[in-house]
Amino acid sequence: MCGIVGYVGESNALPIVASGLKNLEYRGYDSAGVALSTDGRLDVFKSEGEIDDLELPESHPSTCGIGHTRWSTHGEPSDANSHPHTDCTGDISVVHNGIIDNYEALKNELSDHEFTSETDTEVVPHLLEETYDGDDLVSAVEHVVAQLDGSFALAVTAADHDGIVAARRDSPLVLGFCDDGNFVASDVTAFLEHTREVAFLEDGDVAALTDDSVTVRSAGERVERERQTVDWEADSAEKAGYEHYMLKEIHEQPQALRQTISGRLDVVNGEVDLELDLPEQYLQSVEEIQIVACGTSYHAGLYARRLLEEHADVRTSVEIASEYEFTGGRDPWRTLVVAVSQSGETADTLRAMRTASAAGARTLALTNTVGSTAAREADDVVYIRAGPEIGVAATKTFAAQVTTLALLTVEVGRTRGALSGDRASTLLENVRGIPGAIQQVLDADESIRDVAREYADSDAFFFIGRKLGMPVSLEGALKLKEISYLHAEGFAGGELKHGTLALVTEDTPVLAVLTDGANASETLRNVKEVESRGAPVVGASSLENAESFLDASFTVPELGGLEPLVANVYLQLFAYHVADELGRNIDKPRNLAKSVTVE
Ligand code: M6R
Fold it and tell me: Which residue is closest in CA terms to ligand 1's atom 10?
């Protein structure tokens, strides 16, 4: 996620804002920038790359500044796309986290303004230029944010304004108070060395910061936000109070997925807008979609295969990227190759993509990383917008990959005439429900921890599920083994009796996906098979009375067949708590790297 820090006070702003940016580095970023206002002048320094690459002056007289670390969602990482963004006069500067869904429409209305970037953010300073009369920046910001659709945390400074105005909707912002000034930031880490006195802004708030006052308004009325003292150490603040990045990222899933789908769904008409350049005729003539990916991304591909075959009526194969050269490249002219990769840098996936491309197939990269090699080399690209993932174990990016692939399914299905508007609307309504359903699972975190602790000393674990529950079983097992170092295997439920049942004992817990979308009643037969061998069974279930026949049961809210994606969050938490109980190095498991850039 992008990071924001702003300071106004009695001290020199430059070193404070610059060190705030360094404190936000852990969030991941591809560019950075600072705006400093002083005596009617605004100076902006920004560039692609590391904070250390920013060409900042040795000193600057300003006592009011805003800074930003950018993780690209619109437009490549570049100097021009870095924040802060300014209006035509260069006197108003803005930093932004989130996505402004209606930026194109707003930009069209600002045709007499000169835009210098490809970002959604840049509409904000230009809208402010239209509204701000040089007197009341707070009212101008209130007026502008009312025109924005989407999510945002904004910080604004202007050359002639003595302070910072900040606003939030669906993207966090926190205020910090100290003796010689006030802060606003996307999280407390940014200013922890200066103060632990904070107040969290709420959706709809607009805050006005000066060197000696902070006022907050909501819907035009003055409101008070409770001041609190945080007792976090810098390290835990980076993790928002969670013990590990993995746990933080698991809990970030609702917010990440809202970002994934933001501005892309037209539920009423059953349409999606992924800003793809795939010609209609081409999509109609495609005979096969080949998904190439590794590890967790491969499991997301397996999930998508079912969706594409069921809703878009297109034959879909999923190839382990490192095997693609032996199996892929069939009938390239009628094949769309979709490379799924969080990092966009996985060597095996890049190689598969290049093999497909050389054979003449059209390639589409589905990635989290703007400007990555996959994004640059593919014919088309769609971003999953999950924000940076720091834990080696992929969690929120799996959910965002599957969600984006569900949207791709709608696009392909509608274009091919395989999916009616009504069915597409229903599917999209369910996609829109994923963040809320995942939140319900997260709320049960403590009971999952208790069950995980109970089984943490087991010999081995088996995961079973069918249909959409099958890739989730594979993913559940992968998560557990990579961070706990325990033996775990995932299967299509029906496959267990063809060999692995021999390993099932009272010491091998079985985790079962028993939800809609996972053919629960058939999977239940497999549950009986393992129970009769004495194995304890933990279920993520939407079956009635599941607790009466399972050793532990976690309820998955209904979601029109997409439940297995939600059930997966139980498995993520289960893996996390087992590994935590065993004292493993969860964010950096042994022998593994976040991005595997060797074949
Ligand atoms: O960046 P990618 O999605 O291409 O990475 C592929 C795999 O290395 C990755 O999904 C890996 O399996 C996960 N980090 C495991 O949690």
Answer: 296
